[in-house]
Every structure is written in structure tokens, then in C-alpha cells.
Amino acid sequence: MWRGLWSLVARAARGPCRPCTRQGSGAPAPGSGATIFALSSGQGRCGIAVIRTSGPASGHALRSLTAPRDLPPARRACLRLLTDPRSEEPLDRALVLWFPGPQSFTGEDCAEFHVHGGPAVVSGVLQALGRVPGLRPAEAGEFTRRAFAHGKLSLTEVEGLADLIHAETEAQRRQALRQLDGELGHLCRGWAETLTKALAHVEAYIDFGEDDNLEEGVLERADSQVQELEVALNAHLRDARRGQRLRSGAHVVVTGPPNAGRKPVSIVSPEPGTTRDVLETPVDLAGFPVLLSDTAGLREGEGPVEQEGVRRARERLEQADLILAVLDASDLASPSSCNFLDTVVTSAIAQSHNGNSQRLLLVLNKSDLLLAGDLDLSPELPPHLLLSCLTGEGLDGLLEALRKELTAVCGDPSAGPPLLTRARHQHHLQGCLEALGHYKQAKDVALAAEALRIARGHLACLTSGGGTEEILDIIFRDFCVGK
Amino acid sequence: MFPLRGCGRQIAASFTKRQFPLARFSGDSAAPGIPHFDVVVIGGGHAGTEAAAAAARCGSRTLLLTHRVDTIGQMSCNPSFGGIGKGHLMREVDALDGLCSRICDQSGVHYKVLNRRKGPAVWGLRAQIDRKLYKQNMQKEILNTPLLTVQEGAVEDLILAEPEPGHTGKCRVRGVVLVDGSKVYADSVILTTGTFLRGMIVIGLEMHPAGRLGDQPSIGLAQTLEKLGFVVGRLKTGTPPRIAKESINFSILNKQTPDNPPIPFSFINETVWIKPEDQLPCYLTHTNPRVDEIVLENLHLNSHVKETTRGPRYCPSIESKVLRFPNRVHQVWLEPEGVDSDLIYPQGLSVTLPAELQEKMITCIRGLEKAKMIQPGYGVQYDYLDPRQITPSLETHLVQRLFFAGQINGTTGYEEAAAQGVIAGINASLRVRHKPPFVVSRTEGYIGVLIDDLTTLGTNEPYRMFTSRAEFRLSLRPDNADSRLTFRGYNEAGCVSQQRYERASWMKSSIQECISMLKSIEFSSSKWKKLIPEASISTDKSVPVRALDVLKYEEVDMELLAKAIPEPLKKYTECRELAERLKIEATYESVLFHQQQEIKNIQRDEALQLPKDLDYLTLRGVSLSSEVREKLHFSRPQTIGAASRIPGVTPAAVINLLRFVRTAQQRPVAATESPKTGQCLCDTEKLEEQQL
Fold this sequence. Notes:
By secondary structure, chain A is an alpha/beta fold. Chain A has helices spanning 5-8, 10-13, 58-66, 119-130, 142-149, 155-181, 183-208, 218-238, 240-248, 265-268, 304-319, 335-353, 395-410, 418-441, 445-462, 468-478, and strands spanning 35-39, 48-54, 78-83, 90-99, 110-116, 135-137, 250-255, 279-285, 288-294, 322-328, 359-365, 385-386.
């Protein structure tokens, strides 16, 4: 977004783009009037994390998260229960501070939330702030820039500003790059491409549609591209679990045929239990918050109680982020093992190949009972880990594998600021989606194109590019225009 | 009499009406007897005529130097003006009291607004123009402009002098030397030489030097500019053959009828000269595979196509269309060249094949089977000067008081040229009077987008205006160009007539008055539904609805609204233009609110001026990479906003620049180097205070 000098610095984070083009106009509360928020303490795991806001909506944000309480007295730390204003879900018990402008760091109204430093809590508070109207994630160096703009920094302090901005934009750029390598980045780039093409075609229709012979149906194609994009974005945003994993933890489900020895659960779960029913325990697994469930042995029939257990177990399996499937290594040929392999393991693996984000770890327990060469008899077994609960052999391997899988599911909390960028992602994707809605409603093509420009500006904040030249390149590539 | 020792005829417009202060000729370095003007414009094309007229309107004694007076106002390519984006430029030229819109209203033969169904922000005013009439009317206008003198002559060299302190540039232009060795002194010089700088015409394998078919190129001037250190590039363009009208079988072709009534280009005209029913039609035909064959079989006879020089992507020759989009049928518009012209211009058939092959190609097109080619199409290759070497006021960085406008800056199109001409004329005149430059921001007009793109990004193909280049397209509309530019033109440049100023003021205040009226009229949606049953007003909301919101409905216009509420709305429907503009304002109201906010942010950056005389290569006390230094040195941005738009200038560099400017302000030594610098720093300071 072209937010004037004080947002120019954000450009670097997005890589090269033709800068005269505004990115994402009309995003909620643009310009210096917007209220920004960011995690201002260090990234990663720490005892206390400080989240700051600056701008006119700071007071509103503070009240929204601490409802029904009033603003605390100025510049005095108060303990408050933070709740998500939309879901009313409690987030954390935190110290909050209220700094009415101009006596604040930036000179604007500011609020600070000192929350418990776990990634789940921080992510939850950032997301809740992102949902308060008028708030958006801060661009790199934006707090400092605002302070500078309001004369809160001396000239010597300003000297460090450029360096700071450079460092922050670098960090953001690296972060963006890291993310761009991942699945999400891939998605975003794909969306941006679709959108740019749709916009280029609408622009071509405006600039050349009348006099030149554009092929028929240029607008209709743009419409269907926008439609597709809307569906994809909606699906992505509806997948709230993605955002919640770090807050409430990833769902890990342990399952297997009866008597396969799902005991490794006890390694991480302090609570023993009957496995007649689904048992849920929040645990810290390899540094990740995890909601661990153990399901009843999957066996059909045999009484109403067991049947109910099996039904619940199946439901759990469907919702799982990670399935820990446990089989008896010495009993692979038994009907119950074979049935389990066919129904649960194979289908989960097949689904993950189809782009389903659900993951599965196959563990063969009781490896101490195996004789050398036994496993060669079943070469069609999917990738698996060997474990002996009796001897403890393979336990480290299992923990390491779990850590890897959870990293994939939750994102690595030690690798930079995924929390912040997650809030940014959500903000811009939501903004993009809103703009696409305006596109569909617009009767005037100029207004429709404006909506697409805004939508593209939002995506450009997540990827890069977004220049006019890119549009013209597509126009001249796709159409023979001009006389 | 005024002693003009020109090398040709001299035509002094309102010559006898004026009294020249003779004292000017005995000025510092001017030898007595050598003519001296405030502004000299070289070139009588679309940029030159606008520049000369604008400078004269601003009160400068101006000389227009041209090869031949009878080519003034010549439309050397297409017989049309305007279009999408280009029509926007024409409205802005008109808002500054420029000529081309008014001349088009006197010379058009087929007026048609493009994009009628696509929303008023992208309407494209366009007309087929009678070449002869345009030339006649333009010459009449130019030759009757007070303070403007016209002289025939080819300029060979520039007269240069020591630079003025306080401005960038290694020297200052003092006048020009003509081919015959005679001199004319000038306080500002505007170069609008179009394709004449080392112009080369290409047909087939033949190439010969010419600026336009039948006209000599400027070679001496090109050498002078190169010697001064200007970075020169090469571009190419082309024009189609002309066909005898009576040899075309129009009866089998699609006919395009013009608008009835025609919409005038100029804000001050309510109608155009021609009766709607007297307008001429255009016809549409298409190429076919046989055309492709002829092109492809004869590529070896076509040196223009083979050259690597960049041509425009959007106005390609038929050869590039065939090469880039094979197996496609392309449109050919058959356009009239004028009321009594025997020629037809086949728009879309720009070609550089040898003449006999052009004729062969033409005759295999439907409707043109028996067509007679009167003049072959040809290509032009020419020098342009990298526009990053000029400021947004179009003055060069290298030579003080030398201005460039038009195709010389790498643009294409009459309208792009005219737009630059007006700005160069105004600024050349302001410069002479030591007044601050008149710069149109990209938030204010397409003229601003055009000049900002050129001066900050440069161009490597002929630059043409598109609406997609304008970020603030919904604000920069053809209908409101006067409210964006006329007042500035009147107050800051003095280039706008009293009559136009008053009309624009009346329009602006009427719109404001009526909009606030429309905001204040509120009824429930069910009442609106009863008042205006024609409109599909949604009744799902219980809040009162403003009249302005009702006007947003597609099927509602001021007429309908005033019928429902005659008092007080009736009076706003009496002027058709006013009623239409109110409807447009309503259509975009909600989006414009957001856009205004953004525009303010950009304007804030543009108010942060950088000292003009900074030497970025040696500047100490500011941390900039050598790459950034070079970019800043080459483009010499005038504001923080412009600096930030230069590709490769990092945000950190921008902050560093800003810090430098603020630090320098605290060290008076740096500021006293030039009075200009001091002023810039004050502006910066004022702005910072406003932000507090």
C-alpha cells in the first residue's frame, strides 16, 4: 500500500515492485490514521511477550480485549483477563497499560499488553487485535517512524532509524522469503498470479476493449477467475484450525487396533486412562502445545458402549492434524492389523497425497518381539518407525519424528516471527476477500477494476510485485491491441 | 520594424499591436540588432504549438521557430484525436486553456465517446478530425495569439552561457543559432522537435533521412545535444498507407456511426462546429491469412521490422501483429481524413513493406479489392532524449532554461505531446519571471502521471497514456479536469483566461452546493420507492437514505431526482453538464473518500522538497550506497516522494535523505549555499510541524 513516506519502507520487505503503484488502496483505515499493532518483544519463546498498539483506535482495541472493563488509568499497569472479542474465548491473564497520546512512545494513543510468552497466547492476542476494526499489523519500523513523525525522537535517535528499518525490513524480507518457500507462499503466489491476470484483463477491457478486437468474453473470464479465487481464499480462511493450532495446540490422535500397545501415549501423557472413550490431554510435546487424544481400539460391534467409543474415535481421526498409528509389529498379519492398515493408514496416506494437510506417523510397537527379517515379509508397508515400549528402543526416534511432524503442522516457533506474519496474512487475505466482494457488486467497470486493484494490493503485501508494468506486460502478451 | 533576420518568411502574429521594450536588446550579452524573446519554441507540432501558445498566454513574448509555417498544426499520423486516456489528457490541456481541444471542436468530422458503458471515469473522448481544417484552425489560432511571433527557420545550434548560481546545470541557454548563421536570443528555449532528431524514414529496404515524409531532419541540433552530454536513445514508429476513397467498396463493410449529439472536448464549448447529421462514418474491415502470407514472405525486404530499435507494443505495425499473433484476424478501421478529402486512413495497417507489396497486401483485404494506394506507409526511426534528464517542469538538468516537450522525450501521440507542450510553455515562462515551477502531481492529473513516469522511470518504448497507468483513476476523470487544474493554472501560472476561470468557479461551487444539498435530503427507503418508482431502491435497511445515495443507483439521474423533489433540485438540472457531473460525483462518492486520504499521504511526501543543487555523488554526511547515489544523480528527484519512486532507491536511503535534509537545516552553512535550498528546508520544516 502506498501510505506515504511513513510506509515506504515496507516496500523493501516486499521485494522489487514498481513503486509508483499504490498497493491496496482503501484497505480499512489507510494512511497515518490507521492503528497498528505488533509484537514488540523478541520473537520465539520467552517468559513475557509485549504487544503494542499505536493510533486512534488503541483505546478501543484495549477495551475490546478487556471487555467489559473500562480503560485502565493512564500509564499504570493493571491485571486484566484478555478475551477474544468475537469468540469470547479467554486468551490470557495479562498486564495491560494505557498511554493516551501525546505522552507516549509514538505520540499517539498507545496500548501495551504484557502476556505470557508462549506462541499460542501471543498468536491468539495478535489475531484478536487483527479483528478489531481499524487495526492492522504494523509494517517494519512503523512504530519508530510514527515516533519520528510526531517529534518524539531526537535527531541522534533518528540516525539509527534508517538502520533499524533496514534491519527490520531485512528480517521481514527473510521471513517472507522463508514463508514464500512454504506451502502458504506457494498458495499466495498462485492467488496473486490469478488476480493479476484477472486485473490485467479487466484493464485491457477498459483501455482497449472499445477500439481493438479483444477476444470475446474477456470480462467473463476475469469474473470466473475472481470467483475461483474467492472460493480458494474463503476455504483457506475458514480453515481456522491452521491459525488455532499454536493457540490451542495441534491435535494428535493415537490410534491402532486393540492390543497393539498404544502405551507410548504414556510417554507424553501423565494421565493413564481407560481407552474405552476418547481421552484428551493438553501436553507440551517437543516444545509444541499439543492436544493429545487416545482413541478406543478400532474394532467394530461388540456392545453399545464400544460402538459409541469407535464412533467417537473415527470422528477424532477425521479432525486430527497428526495421526499416530500404532500396530503390533509381531502381529502384522492378523485380520485386525490388516483391517486397520487398509481402512485407517492407507486412506490417510492417500488423502495426504491429495493435498490434505493431515499427517500420519506409523509406529510398529513391540519391535522386541521381532526376529530379523520378519518385516521383509510385508514389503507393502508404508514408511514406519520401530518402537519397543518394553526396552525403550526407538523412543528417541519417535520423539524426533513427532517434533518434525509438529513443526510442519504448527510452524517452527524458533524460526523467526511466524506469529506476526500470520496476523499479517490474515489481515491481507481478509482485505483481499472483501475487495473481491466489491468487485462482484460493482456495476461500473472502473469501480470493479478499482476493487481488483485493492485486492491485488493486499496480496502484493504478502508476495511482492504489484506494479503497473506487470499489468501492461500481461495485456501486451495476451492481446494484440492498438491500431 | 522589429529586426528579425530569419532565414525564411517571418510572420508576426499580433505584431503591430505590441510595443517592444527596446531596452531588452541592449541587455547583458545580447548584441544590438539581434532579436531577443522571453521564450523561443523550436518546432510547430502538437507540443510546439501548445508550448508557444501557453508561454504567450502566461505573458511571455514568444517566438515559434518552425521549418515551414504551412506545416503548423499538421497531423502527420492518424486523422483523429483523443481516445481512452488520451481524451483525459486533452481535457486537462483544455483545463489549462490549451489549444487542441478547442481546435478539435472546430475541426472534427466524427465525434464518438469510447467506453460509454464502462463508467464515466474511463470515458474516452475521441473524434475523427479533418486534417485540413485542423491545420487551418490551428494556424489561425497561433497566428492570432497575442505576444506570439512565428518564424520559419531550422535551428542548428544553441547559444550557451555561464550557469546561473543556485540551479543545477553546467550551463545556461541564451538563444539559438539558425541554419543560415543568424541568431535569436531567448531567456528560455523549448525544444519540441518530434521525430526530427536524426529522423530516418524507412520503406522496404530504403532508408533516407527525414523528420516526416518530405521534411528535413535536424542533425546539427542532435549533435549539439549529444556534445552537451545528453543521453540519447533511439525509437521507431510507423504510419499506414493512404487509400483513395472512391476506390473502396464501403457497401460491404460494417459502418460505425458517430454520437448524436457529439460531445465537445473543451469545457467552454457546449456544442461542436458540425451538425450531428453531417458527420462522416467510419468503416470496419479485417485482415486475412493472405495478408499474413504477404508479410511473412517478404520479411527480408523489410528492414524496419528487423531493426532492434524499440517500437510501441500497443500500436504495432501489421508486421509485428502477424509475427506476434499469428493466425489471427486483425481489425482495420477505415477512417475519413476530412470532409472534402479523397483519402482514407486504414487504421491498424501501419506497414513498412516496399510500396508495391503494400498495394498488393491492401487489395487482398475485403472492401479494398480495387483500392488505390495514394501514399505508401512508412516507418520512422528517431533519436529521443532519456526523459530522466528533465525535471517535472520539463527543464533539463544539464542546461538551465532549456526545456524538452513531446516526442523528443520518448512519448508518442498528439495528446501526450500537447500535454507536455502546455507544461513546458508555462514553465519556460515562469522561469523567465523567476517564479516557482508549475508541476502537476500524479495525484492531480494524467499530465502528472505522464511526466512523473517519464522523469522518474524513463522509457524504452514510445510512451503512451493508458488509464491503467493512473493510480487515482476514479479521481482523475475527464469530467472534473477543470476543477483539478483550471484554478491552479489561473492562480499560479496565469495561463487561463478570465472567462474560463469564471465558468470553472461557477461549476465547482454549484457542484459543491448541490452535493451538500443532496446529502441533507433524507427519507426512508420506502418513501424513496414511492417518490421514484423507476429505481430499484432496496428497502432492507431501516435507516434514512440520502438523496445522494439514491443518485448512485444506475437508473437514477438528476432529472429523475428533481422530478421527485423539484424544490430545491430543479435548478441543478438546467445545465446539462452540471447535472451529468453531479451524477458522476455520486457514483464515485464512497470510493473517492478513501482515495482522498491516500492522495493526501502522497502529497505530503511530495511537499518534502530536496535541495535542487545536491551533488549526490560527493554528498558527505549521508549514508547512501553508490548505486543509489548514481540513480539519484541521474534522475535528480525534486521531492522525497519522487525519490522514493525511483527503482532501486531503498526505503532506508529515503529516510537517510530526509534526515540529511533536516540535519542540513540545523547547519546554516549548508543552507546558505543557495537561497533555494533554504526555502526547501523551510517547507520541510513546516510540514513536519503540521504532522505534530
